[in-house]
Write a structure and sequence with these properties.
Keywords: Membrane, Transmembrane, Transmembrane helix. The chain has 21 helices and two strands.
Length: about 500
């Protein structure tokens, strides 16, 4: 059993952590994720705090906690029997290819690590990420002495992820192969949540406007016994977060896309056996604080029912629950939620198109009977954003009396995008079990399309359809009453 102990200090008890502690930490983390996925915030908060406390204890026991569950404590410099085990080349030379190796050597050579080197940092970073999403919804959930701003948790999560990515077992190829990691793929879970953390920070950037930052350039002076102080002490001297202060929301989204590309590429496919990279089979719940532009919809209403364990018990295998379509849907939905709120139309269209490309992947992998309504509505939102991107400039030209812009390539592209949005929303309304009310979104798409339509009869028909889909309040917000007056005058 691998064990790690921090250097003892006079008058203080040494902090220790062993493999049993690691197994207990994974179980605790599994319970916290299960309660979060079930929207049981009351139970989630103490569990996440317990995970963060345990991770802090692991960091105090060893600067690289992966040695606790891998046993790769720089064996090359050790005098332990395990460190003296002959290499494959020496075994072949001394025993011959056809000779029988000693049984204990067979056992030693067969052992492989089913944990990623970054498994600890993935758990720690994900716990911080989830705490940030809860604080983003309700800052009063923070206890005295805890940060009450979500960005503090998200920035700490980024530090943890970057520290994990720079572990010696990942950066030193020979050591990694010697530790038995050569057959393991990228830690896709860490990459995905890394990207989602950046999306959350981009969303904060949008909320604080493009000219301000939701977090200070200088780091707070954390107390010495704070987990945030331990995180800051362990991160690389020059970390990527240093450039986030002056970055725009679009810049941060580009960084997130890089992480998503890594994570999606290495994410298991449904046909993979359960034994493939078992430590990676975990669903990270959606961030409820990332809201789409429309007040009538939210990401929870646009996704299928949660598959959390309603009895409050954690699953027997904390990494057995995995759905690639659900992961893709979560990623694309959170990116789309930010895209809908970006101030620049070109950037809105770019990220909506990126989200649409991820949603399209689900057609090849999802059970379409279960996903038809949410997926169709989500793709409609993407096309609504893309189609509406150039509308503001076109409408300004129309207000100046320049009706010729309706024949431009930009106007034609906008009409095509809006027509696609209308088509998706109408199909979402007809999808069995769709659940969400896409009527307001459909009304918005119809109204915007009508404003760009040259033919008077078609324009009046679109206004009428938009009014049927919108309630009185939304009709006033969209200006459909004025549209009716204009039609009466014509």
């Amino acid at each position: 059993m691998a064990k790690s102990t921090s250097a003892p200090y006079k008058g203080k008890q040494a902090v220790t952590a062993d493999y049993e502690d690691w197994e207990n930490l994974k179980e605790l983390f599994s319970r916290a994720m299960d309660r979060y996925d079930a929207d049981d915030i009351t139970e989630t908060l103490p569990l996440l705090r317990a995970v963060i406390r345990e991770c802090h204890r692991f960091l105090k026991a060893h600067p690289d906690p992966s040695v606790i569950y891998t046993g790769s404590q720089h064996l090359r410099d050790s005098r332990s029997p395990e460190a003296m085990t002959p290499t494959d080349e020496r075994l072949s030379r001394d025993w011959g290819h056809d000779s029988e190796f000693p049984s204990h050597v067979h056992e030693q050579r067969r052992r492989t690590h089913h944990e990623q080197p970054t498994a600890f940092h993935a758990i720690f970073g994900i716990a911080l990420f989830l705490m940030g999403t809860i604080i983003a919804q309700d800052s009063t959930a923070a206890l005295p002495g805890e940060p009450d701003t979500p960005s503090a948790y998200w920035l700490a999560a980024l530090d943890v992820f970057e520290t994990g990515e720079n572990l010696p077992s990942r950066t030193c190829g020979n050591d990694a192969r010697g530790a038995g990691f050569s057959d393991l793929a990228e830690d896709w879970r860490m990459a995905i949540v890394w990207g989602r953390t950046l999306v959350c920070l981009a969303d904060e950037k949008v909320a604080y406007s493009i000219h301000a930052s939701p977090f200070p350039m200088t780091e707070p002076a954390w107390p010495a016994d704070s987990p945030f102080a331990a995180i800051a002490a362990a991160r690389p001297p020059v970390s990527r977060r240093m450039g986030l202060y002056s970055a725009t929301a679009h810049d941060v989204m580009v960084l997130a896309m890089d992480q998503f590309s890594r994570g999606i590429f290495h994410m298991p496919h449904p046909h993979y056996p359960q034994s493939h990279n078992p430590a990676s089979y975990a669903h990270i719940p959606a961030s409820p604080h990332l809201r789409p532009r429309s007040r009538q919809t939210s990401m929870h209403s646009m996704s299928p029912p949660s598959q959390g364990h309603g009895d409050g018990q954690a699953p027997s295998d904390p990494f057995a629950s995995f759905s690639r379509p659900r992961e893709l849907f979560t990623i694309a939905s959170e990116v789309l939620g930010v895209a809908e709120r970006l101030p620049d139309g070109t950037q809105r269209a770019y990220w909506a198109n990126w989200a649409e490309s991820v949603f399209k992947q689900m057609k090849m992998e999802a059970d379409m009977d279960a996903w038809r309504g949410p997926l169709t509505a989500a793709r409609g939102r993407c096309w609504l954003v893309m189609g509406s991107a150039p509308v503001e400039e076109l409408e300004l030209a129309l207000e100046r009396g320049d009706t010729g812009v309706l024949g431009s390539a930009e106007a034609e592209e906008a009409r095509e995008g809006l027509a696609m949005a209308v088509s998706f929303f109408e199909r979402a309304k007809g999808a069995q079990g769709g659940g969400e009310d896409v009527g307001p979104l459909l009304a918005e798409a119809l109204f915007t399309l009508a404003n760009l339509t040259e033919d008077d009869n078609k324009r009046e028909e679109l206004y009428s359809r938009a009014r049927r889909e919108a309630g009185e309040r939304l009709a006033r917000e969209l200006g459909l009453d004025h549209a009716d007056d204009a039609m009466d005058e014509s």
